[in-house]
Amino acid sequence: MRVVKAEISRWVKRAKYCAPSAILVSEPHEPARRTLEQELGIIGTAENAEVALKAAIILVAVKPGVLLPMLGTIAPALERKLVISLAAGVRLQNMEKVAAAHFMRAMTNTPSAVCRAATALARGGRTTKSELSIARELFSAIGAVVEVTEDQIDAVTALSGSGPAFVYTVIEALARGGEKMGLAWDVALTLSTQTVLGAATLATESKLSPEELRKMVVTPGGTTAAGLDAMEKRKTSEGLIAAVEAATIRGQEMAKENR
Fold first, then answer.
1. Which CATH superfamily is domain 5-153 in?
2. Which tens digits make up the pLDDT trace of 28-65?
3. What's the pLDDT band for 257 if we cut at 50, 70, 90?
4. What do you get for the CA distance between the two ends of the chain, in Å?
5. Residues 167-190 pLDDT 10s
6. Contact call for residues 140 and 166 (beta carbons, < 8 A)
7. Which tens digits make up the pLDDT trace of 86-121?
């Protein structure tokens, strides 16, 4: 899972967390930088060091393999500043070896673009209570926030970071099923997408367990029961569990690769 600079800028603006003019983004590619400035009204720069010097809260969204070298180039400007990394697979202790910043990790996901993110925060050894509150406030503006220990962050990466891709696969499969049974593709996709959205919203607002919600739909011997039986025979649940497990293991491998 990755969140790029443009997405971060858009969700901060959409959430109205702060004025666009208060957002400073480092983007070396000039056309992309100009687009961000014109579309969002933010301030752009080609220099990471400028952000490090001027920003009070620094969000770092780069590929894991370049995170530590990049931090090393701006380390003097990061001292005692709150730096929140969105990179998967790079441990806090390794970042803390590179710079004297107050590092945290945040694992969010692409629904942040519509302020429906699922974000987990992991504090570092230097994180203060005030900084944790600031991070919670920032990410709460775009969705739900939980706090986890860093040894749990790989599971979060797999579940909520990679999870949207798994859900999109479910949406597509449901739509394909509707199409197979005679619906036009656009009709099936609309119904499938709205069904998943509605089910998720009901699960969030009702506070009922998935089992309780499922029982509200199932009638013994009815259509839902027949569908769930088919899913069980094809081990649909086991496949989704295996997807989260595989993604978690890959996150753990990445942590070993980025020391």
1. NAD(P)-binding Rossmann-like Domain (3.40.50.720)
2. 888 888 888 888 888 888 888 998 999 889 999 888 88
3. confident
4. 19
5. 999 999 999 999 999 999 999 999
6. no
7. 988 899 999 999 999 999 999 999 898 888 999 999
Which residues face 85 on adjacent strands? 60, 105
What percentage of the chain reaches a pLDDT higher than 70? 94
Parallel, antiparallel, or unpaired for β 117-123 and 102-107?
antiparallel
Token pair in block for residue 6: 């443009």
Question: What gap in Å lies between CA 251 and CA 258, rounded to an integer?
Answer: 11
> Token pair for residue 2?
């990755």
The architecture that CATH gives domain 163-255 is Orthogonal Bundle (1.10)
**Contact by Cβ (8 Å): 41, 21:** yes
Buried b (16+ CB within 10 A) or exposed e, 146-159: eeeebebbbbbbbb
Q: How far apart are CA 198 and CA 26, in angstroms?
A: 38
State the amino acid at position 93 in one-letter form: Q
Question: Helices in the chain by DSSP H: which ranges?
Answer: 5-14, 30-40, 48-54, 64-78, 92-98, 129-140, 153-156, 163-180, 185-206, 210-217, 223-233, 236-257
At 185, which amino acid appears? Answer: W
Same-fold call for 5-153 versus 163-255 = no
Q: What is the CA radius of gyration of the chain?
A: 21
Which tokens is 155 given? 């599971």
| Domain spans of the chain, in order of start | 5-153, 163-255
